[in-house]
Amino acid sequence: MSSIDLPVPVQRFDRPIVLVGLMGVGKTTVGRRLARRLGWPFRDADHEIEASAGRSVSEIFADFGETAFRDGERKVIARLLETGEPMVLALGGGAFVSEETREVVKANALSVWLRADLDTLMERVSRRNTRPLLKTENPRAVMERLMQERAAFYSEADLAVDTGDGSHGRTVIAIIDALAHHLTQETSS
Q1: Which of 58, 74, 93, 107 could bond 23 through an S-S bridge, CB–CB 3.0 to 4.6 Å?
Q2: 163 labeled binding residue
């Protein structure tokens, strides 16, 4: 499918799309596919932070702590979004918790909350040991706590899409359908 095959409101949409949700939900993988489908660039906030800092997210957490990481994260996200250029941007799981980051996203982009159940998330995050917040004796308990704590923040996203069976292709289609519906509602209001 080409971008011509997209619903007309989506073809005309030209603001950044920001994917939010818990680690392991598929923001990066889905984001890459969505960007390709739209013909837009893809950016991953964690990769942008690492490039800016010259070190990995894990190293930033270990050397400076979560507060310093979140401060740098907020600045990088603001810099990316304030250009106004169409892109798909995947945020780290905790980024949307920051009120300042949510405000920047709301002012400059359309946000999509990707959701998945706990078992799916745990299966995905267990594939790699690169998640600083899950380097604990009971990562499942941490993930469950994060789901509860962050749901209220994620629910402020413009759209919410369930990742369902985990098919990234179906998730991209669901995002495009939700975006088309949202844009149609927005123009008819």
Answers
A1: 93
A2: no
Residue 150 labelled as part of a binding site: yes
- Element housing 180 (H / E): helix 168-188
Indicate the domain borders of the chain.
Answer: 13-176
Residues of the chain with pLDDT under 50: 1-2
* 46 among annotated binding-site residues: yes
**Which of the four CATH numbers 1.10.10.10, 3.40.50.300, 3.40.830.10, 3.30.390.10 does domain 13-176 have?**
3.40.50.300
Phi-psi region of 118 (alpha: psi -120 to 50; beta: other; left: phi over 0): alpha
Q: Are the beta carbons of 133 and 146 closer than 8 angstroms?
A: yes
27 annotated ligand binder: yes
Confidence (pTM): 0.90
Q: Is 72 annotated as ligand-binding? A: no
- Residue 142 has a pLDDT of 84
